[in-house]
Design brief:
The protein has eleven helices and nine strands. Helix 3 crosses helix 4. The two termini are 36 Å apart.
Length: 308
Amino acid sequence: MSKQRSAVADYTLYVAVRLFVCVIQAFSFEAACVLARWLARLAYAIDRRHRLVALENLRAAFANRFTDEQRTALVRSTYDHFCRLLVEIIHLPRRLHINNWTRYLDLSEARPVLDYLLSDRPVLLVTGHFGNWEMAGYALGLLGVNMHVVARPLDNPYLDRYLRQFRERTGQRVLAKKGDFEQMQQILASGGVLATLADQDAGQRGLFVDFFGRPAATHKAIALLALEYRVPLAVALTRHAGQPLQYRVETEDLILPEDYAGRPDAVRAITQRFTSALERGVRKAPAQYFWLHRRWKHQPAKPKRRAA
């Protein structure tokens, strides 16, 4: 039985987050980026639990590539990246608009994805917790792409509503991962666009595919929807391009469901393919991936021995 949440505690946390956002917005963007570096050092020092998770994930994913000292440095860089990402998201509505988006977002390597987004065919846009995925959705909405984002609602209802307001500021709409499945089907059936983060642990009932050489529980609904509604999967990542708030959308793969028609292993094959595409993108810039998440939390159940 899940623990009952305290409305007072949830609202107190919400007020604290709003105050933090106000403080960050009071700084210039340049000063806020300097503050982000200090926040990263503080988070690395006190957040022992996630620091150890990141080290464990990197040790398993890059067993023969990095030394212990290099992995420690990479975890520090990961904290740097995500603290800067937080500052960027807070300042994004004030800095990114329709007249200057090319200053911050490079779409030159996303042309194959854009061709599908501008066609009459439905599209499943697959990405991961890499780079600045929030900026990509925000910018595409700003450019007029009518997109629905599939996301897990936050446990804190006040923070969930606050984050939803940011995500829907430029026209995109948020659907709950659990509870809005029929609406997802209707959107694809009518030629719409769905975007989802496909690198979250799916629990023991997920489909286990290879991710950095380890079985990773992955949601199979993405492949099922692609096959049922003949929807192309566009796998893309938004990679940091050097300067704060400058990113490049990179196409990692385009998966056509008709290529898997009639295959008994179609769901597994498609799920493995987009997972491998995400892995390729992460390998290009490991410090931009959210290693603090327990991506391999669940593992395939071991077969039970029969009694003699």
